[in-house]
Design a protein that fits this description.
- The chain has 452 residues and is an alpha+beta fold.
- It has 23 helices and 11 strands.
- Strands 5-6-7-4-3-10-11 form a 7-stranded mixed beta sheet. A 4-stranded antiparallel beta sheet has the order 2-1-9-8.
- A hairpin with a 5-residue loop joins strand 10 and strand 11 (179-180).
Length: 452
């Protein structure tokens, strides 16, 4: 059965929560599923290493209170996929037969703090023991524009699974560890295959962001070595222009995950071959080899994606243009610029001089960029520690001292002599005193005026 929300994006909140919604069949989704649905795989996974991360006291509590009201709840998406891959799940998302109004009622009755995160699409965030759990009413997409969808609520988990992008993301499990796999996602996971649910062209046209998600999951799941699904590649080639519909921020979010994932050179070369670069504002001279070479030694679990991305640029200006287009943060801008400008130096003294020249209020940014540079080099901790514990000395001269002892008048010449003295001080490894520097500057002043 399907519960019609009609055009949920335009309904006010009180209507979404309180209106009497009608049931109707969805021929569109049933047709989409035809020929693709398998019988649900009801194997148990409760014995797997990380299942206890899902079936904890909080998630058990959520399932229990909903069950008492006659609603079914299952864990869906990435959490199940991660457990099947013997990985600890990051976030636990759930799907339920309860309508949004039903969920609010259950939460209110049991004193569960809840946030109406995406109520128009049936999503409420439950806070249990200070941990967020996103719980979403089962739904189908009735109308899409290539990015956003109007939905209808349903009580059928199989219909809900049919609207998901990849088969490996369409697997669900109840709190007892019973698996429901309608599209052979578990088999595809074991064989390291990344496949869309049903027709790749249809799924991509529903949401063009799925083009980039396909490449991201190829890097996460596949063994690489050009194990591409040809039907998917054909669909991407045909419908790639839809990437224009995707916001720049979302493109960066997906590309950031691709960059620090596996098979990055293979993926970027495939994207370039498919002429996707112009559609996401990467130029054809983007240096894939430079990025992939550094990828092999970088500490990928610790660095920011922008640090690796910067190795695709030979020019800080070109990076800055992409930063603005992808709407990266100012911290990401600083890191990218820092790495591009200073990645060729490994001399401790070079970075000490750089740090001394950095205004005190900006030195936290320096350390941020410097740490990223060390991590992308594979964890150059000797270089990192040489500065992290170093007490930055203060330049011992002020402008008024120079004016008085050298005999300068106020003006640009003072700044020139401040810089001259500071360079001499740095070349002495910061050992010269103010008296030593003043003597040096007097000598330089006399040389400049000799013969005038």
């Amino acid at each position: 059965a399907v519960v019609s929300t009609q055009s949920t994006g335009h309904l006010p909140l009180h209507v979404l929560l309180r209106s009497s919604l009608t049931l109707k069949a969805s021929d569109q989704v049933i047709k989409r599923m035809a020929g693709h649905v398998t019988n649900g795989d009801h194997d148990h996974i409760s014995h797997l290493k990380y299942w206890s991360h899902i079936a904890n006291s909080s998630s058990q509590f959520i399932c229990d209170v909903f069950k008492k009201k006659g609603y079914e709840v299952r864990v869906v998406g990435g959490a199940v996929r991660d457990v099947l891959q013997d990985k600890p799940p990051k976030d636990i998302d759930m799907a339920t037969t309860a309508l949004p109004s039903d969920m609010v009622e259950v939460c209110t009755e049991h004193g569960i703090k809840h946030i109406l995160t995406g109520i128009q699409h049936g999503t409420i965030t439950l806070m249990v023991e200070d941990v967020p759990y996103e719980v979403t009413t089962l739904r189908i997409d009735t109308d899409t524009d290539g990015r956003h969808a109007e939905v209808q609520f349903t009580t059928d988990f199989q219909l809900d699974a049919a609207r998901r992008d990849l088969t490996i993301n369409a697997i669900s499990a109840d709190i007892d560890g019973r698996v429901y796999d309608y599209f052979n996602g578990r088999e595809h996971l074991e064989k390291k295959k990344v496949l869309f649910v049903g027709d790749p062209a249809e799924r991509i046209q529903e949401d063009y962001l799925r083009i980039l998600r396909y490449f991201r999951f190829y890097g996460r799941i596949s063994l690489g070595d050009s194990k591409w699904d040809e039907a998917t590649i054909t669909a991407i080639r045909t419908h790639k222009s839809g990437l224009h519909k995707i916001s720049r921020e979302r493109i960066w979010l997906e590309m950031a995950k691709i960059i620090v994932g596996n098979h990055v050179e293979e993926i970027l070369l495939k994207m370039k071959t498919l002429d996707l670069f112009p559609l996401i504002n990467l130029t054809r001279d983007f240096h894939i080899k430079g990025l992939s070479s550094q990828h092999k030694i970088a500490m990928l679990d610790k660095i920011r994606p922008v640090t690796l991305l910067s190795y695709g640029f030979n020019s800080a200006d070109h990076f800055s243009k992409l930063r603005k287009n992808w709407k990266m943060s100012m911290d990401e801008e600083y890191i990218g610029q820092f790495v591009i400008k200073h990645r060729h130096s490994q001399d401790v003294k070079y970075f000490k001089d750089l740090l001394v020249d950095t205004p005190k209020h900006c030195r936290h940014k320096f350390h941020m960029g410097f740490r990223e540079l060390c991590l992308v080099r594979g964890g150059d901790m000797e270089l990192f520690e040489s500065l992290s514990d170093w007490t930055v000395p203060d330049y011992p001269l002020r402008g008024d001292q120079i004016i008085k002892h050298v005999g300068l008048s106020k003006g640009p010449m003072v700044h020139k002599f401040i810089t001259l003295g500071k360079n001499k001080w740095k070349s002495s490894h910061f050992s010269l005193s103010s008296d030593d520097l003043l003597d040096y500057l007097v000598e330089e002043f006399n040389k400049m005026n000799k013969g005038k």
